[in-house]
Amino acid sequence: MLAFIATRIPGPVAETADRDPGILTLVFTLARAVRTGAEAAFARRCALAEAAGGPNPL
Question: Which domain of life is it from (predicted)?
């Protein structure tokens, strides 16, 4: 079936400029990792404060 479709295309297909080149995926992945790391660091600080007898900010 693919061979039939490929023979019916008159020329190479031009890709549009609005495709994700991968940089957007990389940026969003890094932003998610930073946010998750910040949330984990805040949770550790809260646990340390509570273990020291201080108030729990949560």
Answer: Bacteria
Question: Do the beta carbons of residue 49 and residue 57 sit within 8 Å?
Answer: yes
From residue 36, alpha-carbon distances to 1, 7, 33, 51 in Å are: 46, 49, 5, 23
**Rounded to whole angstroms, how far apart are CA atoms 38 and 45?**
11
Q: Where are the alpha helices (DSSP H) in 1-58?
A: 2-8, 23-51
Candidates 32, 28, 51; CA nearest to 40 is 32
User: What CA–CA distance (Å, rounded) separates 40 from 21?
Assistant: 31
How does DSSP classify residue 18? T
Question: So what's the pLDDT on residue 19?
Answer: 65
